[in-house]
Write a structure and sequence with these properties.
Helix content of chain A is 31%, strand content 22%. In chain A, the strands form 2 sheets. Chain A has a 7-stranded parallel sheet. A 5-stranded mixed sheet of chain A has the order 1-4-3-5-2.
Chain lengths: 245, 245
């Protein structure tokens, strides 16, 4: 369906604007994405598109041809985005789909969470569990830095204790932490068939109770400073695991 | 020297505020840092400190005991910082000090530049060359994400063509790029004794003329998406080089 809108007061424009509010977003279970790259990645989840010109998209997606003024108003990006879309919330799957998981334990910076989701897809870690105190998945910064990888992943909100469940299912629980019992990543040669990789909060690392659940702790040796950015650290660990498998 | 200031109109407070302007910063060759961690890393470069209470610092540093209102005004961080300092610009050294360099070719996001500087220190790449079109080193976001590593590194602004000079001095010039001639990072076993690692722009990668100067091109194999965040990619490459050396 293709329609034209020229007024900022149009109800569907108002609806799109309302989704900038986190509470509305959660109530409606819809969120906004911006730009052609994200749109392409998100197609399975897109319901409505706001565009300047008709796009070649599946019939099921409603296209609203709008003015630059309307697009600019709906978009939150600093630079002008030529397309904005309304997507339905992702569906997560708590069934056992693959043999590895990433668990984010209180990673709070949206840019870091998005970057980790992007890296996880690149290195084939498609199940990601977000602890309740991690950044909100539908934050625009998370979506942008994920480069749309969220639409190709199985993202689970940890309402029940996923770590315990996975441990019972025979997963090795692997944390990253600079403790005495931590093994140097380069010396960790035998990658387990089923594993969960945990990355902790930017300032505080993993929570004590999460660290206590780990069957293995890994560390990345470094000079002069005592920590890496969590996005960088997780990239190094995921890459090492992928190259060794 | 220790003095007390209670007025926002005090000339030294005004001077600190003026350093938020990039032109003033460059003219004065001074910049602001915030927070105790950065202060500790920056001590060799600190001239003036604004603090709520006297700190245990070298005599050469002037301490101004100020009100919360003044600190809040000088600081640019969202959360209240208990200390702000004025530092002199870093000194760079174009002499041959070590056998490896990082070259940032148009990396524009300040958070990415800061993160790369942090990772570089951790993995012992202490010479960093910034191309003219990379993010401004003294941007607050660069300084914050570097976690103070800038004060322990030799950071060079590429006014002359450093890549040519280093190539003439026998450095291997190694770029990262998904071209046909790129070698899989995991297969690149023999790390050269003298090398420059280049990381390119977030969207466009390395400039063509920079890529043409490379003696080796490396790639990180990945699934489904065709690029990693540049901070993550550089972390993986630096870690791999460090572990193989």
């Amino acid at each position: 369906m293709i329609k034209e809108i020229t007024s900022l007061k149009n109800p569907i424009v108002k609806y799109a604007l309302s989704l900038k509010n986190n509470d509305e977003m959660k109530k409606e279970r819809k969120f906004l994405i911006e730009g052609f790259h994200l749109l392409e990645m998100a197609l399975d989840y897109v319901e409505i598109v706001f565009t300047l010109n008709k796009l070649d998209l599946p019939e099921s997606i409603t296209q609203y041809i709008v003015t630059e003024q309307i697009l600019d108003k709906i978009s939150s990006a600093k630079s002008f985005q030529k397309v904005v879309a309304i997507c339905k919330f992702l569906e997560s799957n708590e069934e056992e789909l693959a043999s590895n998981y990433i668990y984010l334990d209180g990673v709070q910076d949206p840019g870091n969470v998005g970057t980790i989701l992007r890296t996880a897809l690149a290195f084939n870690f498609k199940n990601i569990v977000l602890s309740n105190d991690s950044a909100f998945l539908y934050n625009q910064k998370v979506i942008q830095s994920s480069q749309g990888s969220i639409f190709k992943e199985n993202i689970i909100f940890d309402k029940i204790n996923m770590l315990e469940i996975l441990k019972e299912r025979g997963y090795e629980i692997i944390g990253t932490s600079l403790t005495e019992r931590s093994i140097n990543l380069a010396n960790f040669k035998k990658i387990p068939a089923k594993c969960v990789l945990i990355f902790g909060n930017e300032g505080k690392g993993m929570k004590k109770e999460v660290e206590n659940m780990c069957t293995t702790l890994l560390k990345i040796p470094m000079n002069e400073i005592d920590s890496l950015n969590v996005g960088v650290a997780s990239g190094i660990v995921m890459y090492s695991f992928k190259e060794k498998i």
